[in-house]
Inverse folding.
């Protein structure tokens, strides 16, 4: 088969076909080329974290939370873990049919150090099948509160790194909308979310601000950047958190002040954990 420049030499062509990145004839189309570019960009950020963990842990584990079809987990295993003598990837997903499909594909490909668990976030935190401490937690395009579930899991499991690409954040916008009239009398800042389109966009923005403060309050150093250019995806914010055991002194206070000033106290239990 003719080599495709976008595909790395060590990649499994069979996997790329199974993930529908390549056609059955082994070709890329415009959409799959864009998708592959996004995955490579994310891998570019995750690979040095995996290398760092490998230096200090004999058999590290990466948890892909809200894994869906385990697209990210399979690519990470194919590009990195299968080249190593140790290391595991586990996908956690609440939809049982997707878990079974991922198990079948991993078995077919001989990806023996991949596991898949049909668990909710609460079940995952308590499950004896998962270790008390994990090394890296990822969540790629985890919709709405699924990113927060991944953060809760990472905090509970004392993850050294969290790599998050949030998607479709609607909960904060809904609470802003719910208390809009009350907020008008409380703060002139309510003008920021007066119009519905601004409610949606500001809600999405403030959601990630609150997440960053939550992580910093728990001792993580947080970096926020673009995953790829905006022309490729509007769901493009990448949050990388590294545990430093050094909580930012005012992060918790700032978080609580924002919840109070923006009339978001309904969400206190989600962001203060």
């Amino acid at each position: 088969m003719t080599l495709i420049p976008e595909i790395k030499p060590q990649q499994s062509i069979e996997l790329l076909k199974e993930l529908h990145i390549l056609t059955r004839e082994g070709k890329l189309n415009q959409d799959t080329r864009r998708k592959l570019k996004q995955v490579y960009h994310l891998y570019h950020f995750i690979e040095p974290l995996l290398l760092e963990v490998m230096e200090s842990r004999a058999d590290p584990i990466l948890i892909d939370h809200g894994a869906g079809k385990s697209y990210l987990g399979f690519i990470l295993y194919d590009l990195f873990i299968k080249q190593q003598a140790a290391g595991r990837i586990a996908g956690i997903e609440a939809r049982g049919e997707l878990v079974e499909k991922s198990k079948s594909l991993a078995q077919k490909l001989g990806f023996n150090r991949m596991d898949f668990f049909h668990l909710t976030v609460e079940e995952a935190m308590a499950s004896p099948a998962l270790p008390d401490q994990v090394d890296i937690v990822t969540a790629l395009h985890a919709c709405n509160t699924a990113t927060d579930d991944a953060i809760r899991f990472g905090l509970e499991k004392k993850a050294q790194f969290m790599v998050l690409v949030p998607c479709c954040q609607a909960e904060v916008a809904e609470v802003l909308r719910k208390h809009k009239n009350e907020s008008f009398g409380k703060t002139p800042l309510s003008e920021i979310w007066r119009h519905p389109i601004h409610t949606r966009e500001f809600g999405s923005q403030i959601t990630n601000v609150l997440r960053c403060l939550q992580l910093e309050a728990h001792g993580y150093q947080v970096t926020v950047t673009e995953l790829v250019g905006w022309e490729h995806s509007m769901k493009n914010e990448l949050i990388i958190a590294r545990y430093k055991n050094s909580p930012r002194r005012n992060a918790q206070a700032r978080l609580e002040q924002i919840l109070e000033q923006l009339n978001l106290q309904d969400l206190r239990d989600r962001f203060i954990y």
The mean pLDDT is 90. Residues 163 and 240 are 5 Å apart (CA to CA). The two ends are 52 Å apart (CA to CA).
